[in-house]
Known about the structure:
Layout: H1 4-13, H2 19-30, H3 44-53, E1 59-66, E2 72-79, E3 84-91, E4 97-100, E5 104-105, E6 123-124, H4 127-142, E7 150-153, H5 163-174, E8 186-188, H6 194-201
Parallel strand pairs: 4-7, 7-8
Antiparallel strand pairs: 1-2, 2-3, 3-4, 5-6
Helix pairs in contact: 1-2, 4-5
Amino acid sequence: MIAKTALELWFSEHKLPKYRVKQILHAVCQEGKSSYDQISTIPHELQEKLSREVPIFSVKPVIVMNSKDGCTTKALFELTDGKRIEAVLMRFQDGRSSVCVSSQVGCQLGCKFCATGTMKFGRNLKGEEIADQILFYAQLLQKENKKISNIVFMGMGEPFMNYDNVLESVRIMNDKDGLNIGARNITISSSGICEGIEKLANEPIQVN
């Protein structure tokens, strides 16, 4: 799901009422609607136009696998250019539901302890592509009457090598009109990119 500001800009450019933006975000993020034709408050003609020009998802689940105990759900996503990434949902006995999200296709760093380090670097993920991994699991959990408790940037890639897009995705997740995930429930993990760590420390957002 693109950022609210980008969606508002699209509506403004097409001279359409901006109140529709909140309708769409609520339907997608809070009601679990995965396509525009499921949003009954949106006229059919507008549903079709949005589907063509502003698709809800920028990632497509190719394989979704559950662990034997049902506590873990791993998804392989395909991007619009055919590249693939992974994200994982972890359900804990205390009721928490955490999502481990990817920020890059592959990684430049080649850390020996990390399986992604053996892959070639593909590209940085866009903010929308990162946030859509979260949206996928948010909608999955809605069917279980649950919500995402925590997000950790510990999937594929080094978040601070894709700083701007990672921060954009955090703002999308944190948006009260969207997924409304508290900043303090979001953890950005780094292998030690000092410039990124220092830059994040000065951001006006309280992520871990």
